[in-house]
Amino acid sequence: MTTVAAYAAPAAKAPLERTTIERRAVREFDVLIDIEFAGICHSDIHQAQEGWGKAIFPMVPGHEIAGVVSEVGPGVTKYQVGDRVGVGCMVDSCRVCENCLKGLEQYCLDGNTGTYNAIGRDGEPTYGGYSQKVVVDENFVVRIPDGIPLDVAAPLLCAGITTYSPLRHWNAGPGKKVAVVGFGGLGHLGVKIAHALGAEVTVLSQSLRKQDDGLKLGADHYYATSDPKTFEELRGTFDLILSTVSAPLDLGAFLSLLRTDGALVNVGAPEEPVSLNLFSVIGGRKTLAGSGIGGIQETQEMLDFCAEHGIGAEIELISASEINEAYDRVQSSDVRYRFVIDTATI
Ligand SMILES: [Zn+2]
Ligand SMILES: [Zn+2]
Known about the structure:
Blueprint: E1 2-8, E2 17-23, E3 30-39, H1 42-48, E4 65-72, E5 84-87, E6 90-92, H2 98-101, E7 113-114, E8 133-137, E9 142-143, H3 150-153, H4 159-169, E10 177-181, H5 185-196, E11 200-205, H6 211-216, E12 221-224, H7 228-233, E13 238-243, H8 251-255, E14 258-266, H9 279-282, E15 287-290, H10 296-308, E16 315-318, H11 323-331, E17 338-342
Parallel strand pairs: 10-11, 10-13, 11-12, 13-14, 14-15, 16-17
Antiparallel strand pairs: 1-2, 3-4, 3-8, 3-17, 4-5, 5-9, 6-7
Residues 93-94, 97, 99-100, 108-110 line the site of one zinc ion (ZN).
């Protein structure tokens, strides 16, 4: 066991504070990672506040982890000391179910093991990336290509794969009109990735406040959803709408923007149930769908794709003492576009 410094929420809704946690000794297939950067995801806040149901405390959030391998177990074959690596939202799964065998570990039928706020298959609680080191089985570690600096790579491990996976699954590409709802941590990466995939990209944001950034980062069009004219003008336009917002949406209004056979895919998760008039999907044979992160192999594919296309997150680098302030700012959508913690400051 190694004692490492971390930032933890001692209880639901309590401010995060500096503490120490124990990391397990490296086992046969484990790698020890010296964490350099950890992104702050909106879901860290949902969980630290118990917005998604009962949580485990103390909680060390953080599932956008980028760092360097500093020790490997005797059975490790994929990584060596010094490799640049990342860890995303899960650190284990059953590995034998139908979904795990297909590389869809995120949908493991036995439940994947979350990077934090979870109990590992060894019975011990998991602690996330707001810490100086983490020990992870090599099969749940991905390689960060040299072309992506580690600080802007960190948010790709959740926000990047969460948008990449549905964009690929629903075939965003040349000739396709894709809308991204919300232009925050997830949304700005969705725009960059959809653009790099060759789609015609429209941002649907509450206001035009971030329009200049949107157009600069790859959007072809930018509309304000607070303007009712947007919904008239864009009726029946899109093949795919990717909603990244975690506030409840007027789903019927957004479904009206799809072409026949179009899909509205939700990757943001509101805390409250939503309601829908099903006529919104009957007319035009539309699909309302959801998608969660991506499998390990697909996460590696996403990182390689991002390196090839020069994609990293737009970040505000902060020190650990600024985490609580950053949480407040994320909740008021005041971040361009992802906070990343320099974990050397923990
Ligand atoms: Zn996340
Ligand atoms: Zn499984």
